[in-house]
């Protein structure tokens, strides 16, 4: 089991930057993987970026080259650096963690943090 707490959301102008943080209640190295998802009004939740315990990262096509996911094992924290933000990046961003439980993987979610990109 793991608890996740996000922070760092807010209002930013187009072209600006934000860094989201996700603090985990246990070592992120012990987790199967972590990721950031987002959900805009009227849309399904989608994967933005993910990172494995081996630090292999993957990104949605819409954010490649603009967003970077990284982890700090000493702080049990995963970050999402978001640059060149666009209005279509506006959404609630959720941190996700996968924990191996026997032959399955349990998913855990943070409470979400709002990101609004607007002039």
Descriptive overview:
The structure is a single chain. The protein has 119 residues and is mostly beta strands. It has no helices and eleven strands. Strands 2, 4, 5, 6, 9, 10 and 11 form a seven-stranded mixed β-sheet that branches.
Brief summary:
By secondary structure, the chain is an all-beta fold. The protein is built from no helices and 11 strands. Strands 2, 4, 5, 6, 9, 10 and 11 form a 7-stranded mixed β-sheet that branches.
Low-confidence stretches: none
Query: Proportion of β residues?
Result: over 45%
Structural class by SSE content: mainly beta
Mean pLDDT: 94
Q: What's the number of extended β-strand segments?
A: 11
Order of helices and strands: EEEEEEEEEEE
Major β-sheet annotation: 7 strands, mixed
Shape: globular
Helical stretch count?
A: 0
First CA to last CA: what distance? 40 Å
């Amino acid at each position: 089991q793991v608890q996740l707490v996000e922070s760092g959301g807010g209002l930013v102008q187009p072209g600006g930057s934000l860094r989201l943080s996700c603090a985990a209640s246990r070592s992120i190295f012990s987790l199967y993987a972590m990721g950031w998802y987002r959900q805009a009004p009227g849309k399904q939740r989608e994967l933005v970026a993910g990172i494995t315990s081996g630090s292999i990262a993957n990104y949605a096509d819409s954010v490649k080259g603009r967003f970077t996911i990284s982890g700090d094992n000493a702080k049990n924290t995963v970050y999402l650096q978001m640059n060149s933000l666009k209005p279509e990046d506006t959404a609630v961003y959720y941190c996700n963690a996968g924990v191996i439980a026997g032959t399955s993987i349990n998913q855990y979610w943070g409470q979400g943090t709002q990101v609004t990109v607007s002039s």
